[in-house]
């Protein structure tokens, strides 16, 4: 078992972890038998030759596999992903998450700083930890926060951090609208990312209040998001940002080309944003 040093930031303590853990017997979750594990993943690794995954170190590959095993196990009891097969998780989720790293690095070096080796990053609406937990594995110098509002998903994320032994990632339990008005989190991050959370108008209000002036908001989208991006120009501007660039993302996923929408935070977000929880989704700017 890899040692755990992760911790949990929580804005709500009303739900007990014990009420959820009773559905999982400890013997089912641990330990991972790495000898059997590597044999079982030979096919997946062969499929991912020349992929982003293959650029990782042996330890990082091991951490990814441990995470994927935990994801599929917990997915039997709760809705973490619609994907049920390990090979599809690797190709669809892991590859797509790793594919975000080059555009984040290149854009950060272009506009934000001389180095991107020790950036602070928040994954808004992290869900099952995609892409944030994968980014934390691939970029151990990054300080990553996984922002998630659902208690059961937070429990899974904390468990995954424990299994993988990550020390550079923490779970933040709460809503983006609340954290965006919290002095401890408002304009506190170099980069905010979001994948498969909401449309750009809504994401801008969720994410940009968390980004420092001079930082980046990066949204992972499909192959043709231009109409969505066009509708979001006003929301991006109202949050104090501008559209920096739209980059085609090199992904080995079988689901086609991906796009990284990258916004630069030009000035502080007005205090009235983000609006009350639920309002951005109901009444997009």
Automatic annotation (TrEMBL):
Keyword rRNA-binding: no
Superkingdom, taxonomy of origin: Eukaryota
Family annotation (InterPro entries): rRNA_ssu_MeTfrase_G, SAM-dependent_MTases_sf
UniProt GO molecular function: rRNA (guanine-N7-)-methyltransferase activity
UniProt keyword annotations, A-Z: Cytoplasm, Methyltransferase, rRNA processing, S-adenosyl-L-methionine, Transferase
Gene Ontology, cellular component aspect: cytosol
One Pfam family recorded for the sequence: GidB
Listed Gene3D superfamilies: Vaccinia Virus protein VP39
Coiled coil: none
Full protein name: Uncharacterized protein
Organism: Daucus carota subsp. sativus (Carrot)
